[in-house]
């Protein structure tokens, strides 16, 4: 018998403890013609870690932004602790005990940690007497949850991992019972991600409810109790994590069976194709980005460069691709390439047999206003197969070529007369990948080949990269996805702060060791 039935008074504590922490019923949300959420219902148990997984664009962030009062649902109900709750704005969400850590932090860069934490909180008027109290509470929370950060540090001087801790502290300071994290590990090293997961488990064990949005299957398997899968705006399943598998989740996400492992034979490396010696790159602001990198890639092998974003990998690729100047030497098939900028352009690189799938496809890989067929030939239009005669390009050959590539790479919609900007991010990436991979290069540079691409297409792009390797191409791969580096590379070099921290064979290393190198720690430190 509950006290309620004895006294006739509802015991709110008991009521809400048995009710789900969050219940969403029939939530729909459209942005113009895009139905981002379709009639979604889920229930999240109090004191659990609930994962939400789905491909890019599945509607995860939209759903959670509705729960946080950032968007208003077109239809549907929100129940918090069993009570129907209106959440018109984030103040209402905070009042309902909900905290959210966004994909892009919302901290004020030139304020201190303490200032950021109290900013906008209930008693957050920055009055002297409450600052001392706030500092005390912050220190206490930080200790309790292993979220150590210096309260007086400026946000701009903190690592991304620490900035994230501040976001979590901010939510806890506002007494959040429900914490939503949107793709929190995208910017973290594996060790930082592990630390975050420890914190989340600790919070859960104290009775808090965590909603973790991610597209990474491994994280779901690692840390969640239950998981909901979204696909194209719909909620397709909710399962207990210990009763599912990565394969099953992938299939639910994509809607068909997916090969999660890359099948490949051992590499048969040949002659050296790319030789980099003492490469240095200084950026526009005079900051040294690449500090004396030496690397070698042979025909028929994939050298993967692992590292947390922002450690010089992008600049390294840009110099190789002719988009940036540098010093040192780079040889391709024995011939030095010019790094001074005089001939530093993509055309000169292509003549040397270098193909490049750049990291930033929208700015470096495509002309967004141009049609697919123009983009598919872009940079390669001088090739003989596209020439009708000395003066004219063979438009029919171009179009046929585009159609063939669109079919092979499953580019949707398969319409050559569609502007690049009208394709989704994943399909834009496939246009670039198709153009570069089909250009028969000696050396392929690939930066973040599957960023923003769904699992089904990842599988395909990975197979294509391995196929090129097996045709004897040299491949330099840069990716911030450690899984991708581990499964594709024949050798792995780890980059930190503009330098190569070490090189490992994927069969003789593990995530932990690579993670330490990615954080700048060598075994002998
Ligand atoms: P996810 O977080 O799963 O990657 P989102 O919730 O961000 O997906 O997006 C779901 C769909 O809604 C996508 O097609 C996206 O382009 C669209 N969308 C999201 N936010 C907006 C917005 N503010 N305006 C227009 N379209 C949006
Ligand atoms: Mg999102």
CATH superfamily of the domain at 272-518: P-loop containing nucleotide triphosphate hydrolases
Taking the alpha carbons of the first and last residues, their distance comes to 62 Å
Low-pLDDT runs: 1-12
Bound molecules: adenosine-5'-diphosphate, magnesium ion
Quickly name the level 1 CATH class of the domain at 272-518: Alpha Beta
Assign an overall shape.
globular
- What's the CATH topology label of the domain at 272-518? Rossmann fold
- Order of strands across the widest beta sheet? 6-7-8-3-9-10
Determine the strand fraction and express it as a percent band: 15-25%
Number of helices: 19
Whole-number average pLDDT? 88
Structural class by SSE content: alpha/beta
Mind telling me which CATH architecture of the domain at 272-518 this is?
3-Layer(aba) Sandwich
Largest sheet: 6 strands, mixed
Q: What is the helix content? A: 25-40%
What is the count of β-strands? 20
Rounded Rg: 26 Å
Task: Give keywords.
alpha/beta, Rossmann fold, six-stranded mixed β-sheet, 34% helix, globular, disordered N terminus, binds adenosine-5'-diphosphate, binds magnesium ion
What features would you describe in this structure?
The protein is α/β, with parallel strands linked by helices and 525 residues long. It has a domain at 272-518: Rossmann fold (3-Layer(aba) Sandwich). The chain has 19 helices and 20 strands. β1 (22-31) and β2 form a beta hairpin. α16 packs parallel to α17 (455-470). Adenosine-5'-diphosphate (ADP) binds next to β2 and α3.
């Amino acid at each position: 018998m509950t006290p309620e039935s004895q006294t006739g008074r509802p015991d709110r504590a008991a009521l809400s403890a048995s009710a789900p922490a969050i219940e969403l019923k029939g939530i729909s949300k459209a942005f113009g013609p895009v139905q981002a959420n379709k009639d979604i219902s889920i229930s999240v148990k109090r004191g659990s870690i609930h994962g939400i997984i789905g491909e890019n664009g599945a509607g995860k962030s939209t759903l959670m932004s509705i729960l946080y009062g950032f968007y208003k649902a077109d239809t549907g109900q929100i129940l918090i602790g069993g009570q129907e709750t209106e959440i018109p704005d984030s103040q209402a969400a905070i009042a309902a005990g909900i905290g959210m850590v966004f994909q892009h932090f919302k901290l004020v860069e030139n304020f201190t940690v303490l200032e950021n934490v109290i900013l906008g909180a209930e008693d957050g008027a920055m009055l002297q007497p409450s600052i001392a109290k706030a500092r005390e509470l912050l220190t206490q929370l930080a200790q309790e949850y292993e979220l150590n950060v210096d309260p007086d540090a400026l946000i701009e001087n903190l690592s991304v991992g620490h900035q994230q801790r501040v976001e979590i502290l901010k939510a806890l300071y506002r007494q959040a019972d429900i914490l939503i994290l949107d793709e929190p590990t995208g910017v973290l090293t594996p060790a930082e991600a592990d630390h975050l997961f420890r914190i989340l488990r600790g919070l859960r064990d104290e009775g808090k409810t965590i909603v973790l949005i991610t597209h990474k299957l491994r994280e779901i398997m690692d840390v969640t109790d239950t998981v909901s899968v979204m696909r194209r705006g719909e909620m397709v399943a909710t399962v207990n994590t210990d009763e599912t598998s990565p394969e099953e989740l992938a299939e639910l996400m994509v809607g068909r069976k997916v090969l999660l492992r890359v099948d490949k034979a051992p590499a048969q490396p040949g002659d050296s194709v790319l030789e980099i010696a003492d490469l240095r790159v200084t950026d526009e602001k005079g900051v040294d980005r690449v500090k004396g990198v030496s690397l070698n890639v042979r025909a028929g092998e994939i050298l993967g460069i692992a590292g947390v974003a922002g450690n010089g990998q992008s600049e390294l690729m840009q110099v190789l691709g002719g988009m940036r100047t540098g010093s040192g030497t780079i040889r391709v098939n024995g011939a030095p390439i010019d790094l001074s900028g005089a001939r530093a352009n993509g055309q000169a690189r292509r003549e040397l047999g270098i193909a490049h799938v750049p990291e930033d496809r929208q700015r470096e890989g495509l002309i967004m206003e141009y049609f697919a067929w123009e983009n598919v030939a872009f940079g390669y239009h001088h090739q003989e197969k596209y020439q009708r005669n000395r003066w004219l390009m063979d438009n029919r050959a171009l179009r046929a070529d585009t159609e063939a590539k669109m079919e092979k790479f499953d580019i949707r919609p398969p319409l050559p007369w569609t502007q690049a900007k009208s394709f989704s991010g994943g399909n834009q990436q496939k246009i670039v990948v198709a153009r570069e991979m089909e250009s028969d290069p000696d050396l392929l540079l690939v930066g973040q080949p599957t960023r923003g691409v769904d699992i089904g297409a990842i599988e395909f792009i990975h197979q294509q990269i391995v196929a090129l390797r097996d045709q004897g191409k040299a491949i330099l791969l840069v990716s911030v996805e450690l899984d991708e580096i581990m499964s594709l590379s024949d050798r792995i070099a780890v980059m930190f702060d503009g330098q190569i921290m070490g090189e490992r064979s994927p069969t003789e290393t593990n995530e932990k060791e690579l993670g330490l190198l990615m954080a700048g720690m060598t075994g002998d430190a």
